[in-house]
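Co-fold these.
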Amino acid sequence: MKIFFSFLLIIFLAFSGYHLSFRNFRLPLFARKFYLTGTEFLFLGLLLGPQFLNILDDNTFRGLEPLSALLLGWIGLLFGFQFEISKLRRFPFEFFIAAILEGAMTFLFVFFGVILFYKSGLLNTNLSGPTILIVALTLSAAAACTAQTGVVLLASEKVAKHRQTVKILRYISSIDGLFAIVIFGVTIMLRPEIYSGSPLVNWLGWTTFISLSACAGLLMLYILFFTQRREESELTLVVIGMVMFTSGASSVLNMSPLFTNFFIGFCLVNLTREKEKIFNILVTIEKPVYLLLLVFLGRSWQLSSAWIIFLAAIYCIHRAAGKITGGFIITRLGPALKLQPSNLGFGLLEQGGLALAILFDYHQNFPGDITAQVVSLALLAIIYNEFLSPNFLNRLLKDD
Amino acid sequence: MPRKIQTRDSLTVYFLILILITVFALWFKSLEIESNRQQAGITILSLGIVLLAAYVFSRILKITKLPLITGYIFAGIIAGPYITGFLSVDDVERFRLVDDLALSFIAFTAGGALHLQSLKKKSRIILFNVALLTIVVFAIVYLFIISTGRYFDFINTLSSTNITVFAILLGVVSVARSPSSAIAIISECRASGPFTETILGVTVVMDILVIIFFTFAMTIGKIVINGSEAVYYTALTGLSLEILASILIGIVLGKGISIYIDKAGHDLPLFLLFLAFGVTRTSLWISDFTETHFNIFLHLEPLLICMSTGFTVQNFGSGGKIFMESLDRMALPIYVLFFSLAGASLNIESLIICWPLALSLVFVRAGSIFLATWTAGTISRDPSIHKNNAWMAYLTQAGVAIGLAQLAQRQFPEIGSYLTTVVLAVISINQVVGPITFKAALNIVKETGRD
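Predicted complex below.
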């Protein structure tokens, strides 16, 4: 019964919160920013979780696991739908390279930072090599992603004044998660826990073959569905069924629902005629899905030790350094990019949706104490970024 | 492209899809499940497979002019524990949440489809139909069991007292029908008109009344078996209060929805989905809570609450049209899941055990429904096309009948398992045949495709 009530409460809060946050709420800019990103739902999750009310206890949370896979799948599919090649081609190719490069730079900055930190022995954690590697990959994947909220919130006169900069910021923040999601997806697929013990090369080959075959089969299935034009209600049914199918299959095959659905979304947006309709269906409940994700993540938040606050700050600074360096490098890439201010990275500090989904996927795949700490750290860093990023964005636009 | 070629192409695509889904289903079922995450994956995967397969199956059957819900039910039967075993009995039980949610949602639609003005106009015919269907169906089924019970192997070991109680309870269960199937067929055929309105009105009213009749029947059954005269006055008073409370809660919720539509209005389908879920689970929780803590069994009827809600929004507010449109937007996935899971839960084993009795009962029930509706139609001077075909619309049976049989099983352990087995077997036939005859009836009276 607790599962049902928790589900009920969460749905209600996510739903009402969505309306408060995204619809009719008018507050001063600072508070609006806080509400717009739905950060308060992290705190709600924390409140419902085992540390306070314990409504979302471990059993309840396990009972809601199918819903978790569905949420991840929905976000993954939606992210995949942003990679419509014909639309990406409207922008110069160097923009695309710049976005990937910026994401990769941040990824590498954070990755090596985390590895060095653990190897330095500053923290006596006794973690195994593979665990450290997975932690580093997850944190760096989450760090590489940029959210668009800050840019979306800009006043229209500012947007008009800095049209080119805003355009490239929007472009980069919508696709710089590509590198991260691919690396993270592969990490989940090839994680040591599911290593069968057979020769490594054989196991890698077999896992890759199974994963690719499953994706190809699923893709074939969905393309067959979309060969005929369907009414909206039928399309809604197919999309819901598709996300359930893909997310379930991913979980059973020890793959990431986020990554698999992203891959399916990417293929479908480039192969089907119904892409606009599918996208509209996905967007309809994007916000409630996102807020539910925040609640679930908030539930896993552990604020037991104070050092996490400092570690999160270090992580945040490291990420910012990666973003700023990445931004600096990409403004040297080509003629269109050279016109941009060299501190472009200041506009890419916001961290949101996809990063949260990556953290949640990690949490679902690697249950344990270290996971809770990593997620808590990353969530704190996301909140730091919420406060910092508007100032940096304003500085960028001032310099522009 | 000529229609024939188009249909052939569609069929080819649908068969290819079914083959692929089957391959996936076989593959995943053969895998070893080791972790909780994989178990959760299997749950959501099964739902996805059932949803997509049932949809495709119904499209294939559509070519043969069969109702879509027949396709969903067949897909469920095939995926269920008795044919391929893709969904085990435990799986079906696990999906009860989806089932309850869908049922509440369908009940919103049932309530919303009732227009007070047309109900007032049709009150005479509805009243006759309800009265005759109750009396005639109960009487004929009862007499049939009493007179022929000893000839059926399945129940000839029961004592004559037990056969009497068995006949009484089966008689009442035979009166129950399936509002969900009726709504789904009406919605699929986009049917409207006097015939449709009468059927819907009668079905909804009977859904409420059958619960009351059943309580009476149980009381009589207790008297027959125990010889006591302890009539369940308390139970009847309790039941009346429960029904009243359910209706009142529904009215309050309906008013709430009307206000929401007026003041906010956006994302209504999501809001309704949430509400349907809330009503179902809260009703169950209240039952559990009052029973555990106060030893009072207060059973709020979620279906009745939702019907009352839908009726209030439709008839006592300005948002009836928006309300129905919102329900319609979510209808397809909900119908597909609900009816395919209903198909999966049909008890084929019961049918195999007692098919001669079940089949006879299906015919007797159909005959008695014909007699009742024909008489009601004649008294209220209905057009002959209506009175001759109305029986076809009342054959479907589902959840309510099962619920009543299970309730009886708890109260009468001596005959409970016999009753449940026969009821499940009869429902298995009626739930397959009913939608087909209902759609045929709507086609004959020419009330399809009007909405």
